[in-house]
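Q: Protein A?
A:
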Amino acid sequence: MILKYILIFKISLFVSLANAEGRHVPCPVVSPAQGVFSAAQIKKGALVAVQAGDDDYPVILVLYKSENGFCREELVAKYSIEGAAPRVDSLFFGRIKGVVNLFVIVRWELRHGGLGTYGDLYQVYAYESDKNGSLAENKNITENSEMTGVEGYVEHQASTFRLKTALDVKNFIRRMR
């Protein structure tokens, strides 16, 4: 009986210490409605989640890698306020030169009537996987000028952004090859 309580105490202590470090946490459950998606393309048992952040970065992207019944939590990206809070419109996987990439389409509402600028600002981010099953920003894609734009008006001029959906981005990436 005492052995049972010691074992429970050790397990509780491990969970508390791991959570205090923010490194190992209970694994979330896949729930697209809650922003949690399978990332098995990156690493077996991995999950990726769009979560609430803080006041400066209200949306964060987190990778969870399953390890011994828990998940290692890895911060992939933080999205800042750019006049308005960011919204993740789409999250999907694709390959570039044989490497799996996670694509995230983020949108911010623009309302600068005095400047004649309003509509939505879009940015397509790409994160490539490495041999350890982690994700790092693929700057060759993210910093491509085609990956950002405004749908609406910029200084009273109509503006159209072509990469608002996963299908748009996948077709664009295919044409880049």
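Q: Protein B?
A:
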Amino acid sequence: MNRVRLVPLFAAVVLAACQTEPRPQLPQLTFAHLPVYNLDVGNVEFANRYQPPMAPPHVEHLMPVAPAAAAERWARDRLRADGAFGRAVFVVRDARVTETPLPKTSGFRGFFTKEQTGRYDALIDVELEIRNDRNYRDARVSARAQRSYTVREDASPNDRDRIMYELVEQLMKDLNTTLDANIRQTLPKYLR
């Protein structure tokens, strides 16, 4: 009789031990702390021309923050219309993230070694166009950034989420640096 009572208790303990840890609460990726570019245009528009394939090796659709969404957030936080005519168009041309398996040591040595078994490669390519009222392009700035991160074989799903978040965060810092320099150099007559 005692054994019958212990079986459900044992099963409950085993199931509780198998529980997955909750998904991490990652900070919101924002650029509101950076200065705003007041552009001499009537409005600012956003266009995402990148269509993720939603199939391996592409993983941007599985990320906590996709590069395309982060780039649009950058534009919404940093670009303001402060004129009467024309428009600024912020275009995401490419925002891919791919996962590549890395070779792993096999055999006895591989059994005792924790290795980097995957690599995430991220690329973001954007363009900011200034268009006049006749829809002709008066000026254009582009920027591109690339980053790669590797993942250990024992990384949990939460570890992978953190790595993907950090990858996009660093990618956007690189993009921001390039855009800042290019906007100041190429678009000074459109800045207020």
